[in-house]
Write a sequence for this structure.
């Protein structure tokens, strides 16, 4: 029970889009997406820097040296540098 | 009895439905593709201990392969959607099947950690995108109307399939070892995919049938040819200029961060509150089972009412529901949370195809959906790392729970800022000039005063 429809046998109509135009830019949608990305990066950097700070502090305590003398790994230093709150 | 059935059909609008339609075969195939494609991803946790024992790699370095796979899948999703639109879902999924086989075989023979990263992280990651992204738009093309019903049924298999396959994998790992398990699943999975894809048709027109829900008065939609390619490009250009396109990527991202935090963190959180490992795992299983109801219900409801309302309720419920975890201390508390939270969680992600259809009509949705899955994949990756980082810092999961709520509630606000779904945002996708030749029609249409479903079983 099927209808004999063949897409090859018929011609498509010209799309009725003459003159259709979206002049406005998607500022709201794109802005929301960018806000989420920036917000997420901020959260990641803040918590990452917090974790890095703790790790460096723990290593310093274990080695019995001041925190300023304990060496951080590259990603720990990077996160600390990127976060203005740590 | 017959009169009662007819009354029931009329009362619930079921007279337009029939199970004798090839669209349901496509939905079933999509379910199996989801099951096979997602199995190894879902079972990664089972793989960690055997690899630690065999090679002495750390769980962290093994976990990096999973993170890499998630990110590669996310980044390859727009490509998967585009390829599905351009070359057809079937060819794209065939390419995904070849990569699935290579990824599985290579992973089974892994000796070095970099091989795991390439085989599982990159090859398998791309195969995931090529298998899982085009299948949803392909199912959509089989539904001229009632897309919510088709999507709902497919999404149920999405939830149940991996849960079933994970159990099979666990048994295989136990009995034949991880390497042989990968070989077996790779061979059986590839064979299954090749076999079912033989029956897969990209569009109803490819199969000489009409889409489910096509009225006798409907012209067929354009689905192939040079004009199709150029029109698709032009329409996709319109889609990119809408706020909805970008905001839907954003919403998918926010929702996935919100639930990934919970899905990844619920077992360690439960254990930290004194639950046994099996009991804690049971909480996750309960979430999976309960969420099946709304995975099915959300797209169906979205078609009958506004998808914005359904999605807002789901996101809002997902965000507010996690606060139950702040005071959860007993097994009962956790299981109450699992039931209450799983209801909005299940409905959070399954209405997207219906919303895309409302905004962009019958324009092929592969590229649009692929971009949304990019947002979803990155959201899952971010949400997956939050619980571990937060616990390392604070020794509790409180901040992880709060962050989960913040992301979900931000998603619900973003939904409110979406355009009204009553108005399609771009022109109608072109139809063919010729109407379907009369042919036969399904019994559901005979004698119906309403426009019926053109046949095409």
């Amino acid at each position: 029970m099927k209808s004999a429809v063949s897409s090859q046998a018929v011609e498509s109509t010209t799309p009725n889009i003459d003159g259709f135009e979206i002049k406005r830019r998607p500022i709201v949608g794109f802005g929301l997406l960018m806000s989420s990305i920036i917000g997420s990066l901020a959260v990641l950097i803040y918590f990452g820097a917090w974790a890095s700070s703790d790790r460096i502090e723990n290593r310093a305590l274990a080695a019995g040296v001041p925190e300023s003398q304990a060496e951080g790994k590259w990603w720990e230093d990077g996160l600390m540098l990127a976060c203005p709150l740590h | 009895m017959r009169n009662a059935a007819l009354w029931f059909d009329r009362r619930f609008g079921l007279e337009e439905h029939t199970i004798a339609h090839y669209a349901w075969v496509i939905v079933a195939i999509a379910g199996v593709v989801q099951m096979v494609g997602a199995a190894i991803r879902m079972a990664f946790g089972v793989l960690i201990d055997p690899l630690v024992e065999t090679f002495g790699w750390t769980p962290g370095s093994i976990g990096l392969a999973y993170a890499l796979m998630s990110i590669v899948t996310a980044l390859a999703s727009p490509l998967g959607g585009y390829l599905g639109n351009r070359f057809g879902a079937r060819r794209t999924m065939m390419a995904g099947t070849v990569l699935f086989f290579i990824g599985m075989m290579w992973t089974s023979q892994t000796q070095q950690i970099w091989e795991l990263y390439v085989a599982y992280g990159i090859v398998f990651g791309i195969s995931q995108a090529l298998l899982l992204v085009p299948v949803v738009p392909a199912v959509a093309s089989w539904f001229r109307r009632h897309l919510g019903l088709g999507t709902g049924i497919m999404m149920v298999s999405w939830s149940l399939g991996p849960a079933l396959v994970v159990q099979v994998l666990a048994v295989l790992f136990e009995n034949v070892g991880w390497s042989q398990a990968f070989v077996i699943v790779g061979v059986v999975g590839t064979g299954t995919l090749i076999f079912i894809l033989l029956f897969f048709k990209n569009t109803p027109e490819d199969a000489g049938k009409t889409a489910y829900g096509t009225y006798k008065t409907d012209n067929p939609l354009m689905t192939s040819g040079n004009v199709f390619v150029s029109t698709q490009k032009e329409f996709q250009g319109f889609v990119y200029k809408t706020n909805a396109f970008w905001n839907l990527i954003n919403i998918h991202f926010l929702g996935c961060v919100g639930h990934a935090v919970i899905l990844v963190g619920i077992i360690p959180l439960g254990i930290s509150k004194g639950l046994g490992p099996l009991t804690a795992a049971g909480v996750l299983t309960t979430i999976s089972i309960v969420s099946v109801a709304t995975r099915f219900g959300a797209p169906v409801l979205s078609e009958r009412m506004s998808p914005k309302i359904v999605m807002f309720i789901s996101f809002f419920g997902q965000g507010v529901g996690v606060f139950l975890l702040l005071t959860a201390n007993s097994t009962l508390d956790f299981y109450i949370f699992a039931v209450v939270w799983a209801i909005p969680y299940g409905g959070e992600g399954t209405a997207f195809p219906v919303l895309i259809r409302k905004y962009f009509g019958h324009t092929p949705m592969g590229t649009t959906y692929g971009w949304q899955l990019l947002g979803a994949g990155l959201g899952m990756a971010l949400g997956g790392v939050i619980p571990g980082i937060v616990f390392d810092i604070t020794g509790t999961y409180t901040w992880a729970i709060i962050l989960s709520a913040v992301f979900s509630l931000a998603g619900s606000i973003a939904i409110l800022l979406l355009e009204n779904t009553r108005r399609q945002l771009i022109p109608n996708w072109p139809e063919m000039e010729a109407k379907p030749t009369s042919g036969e029609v399904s019994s559901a249409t005979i004698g119906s005063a309403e426009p019926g479903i053109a046949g095409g079983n």
Summary: Chain B touches chain A through 63 residues (CB under 8 Å). The two ends of chain B are 26 Å apart (CA to CA). Residues 13-211+235-418 of chain B form a domain with the Growth Hormone; Chain: A; fold (CATH 1.20.1250.20).
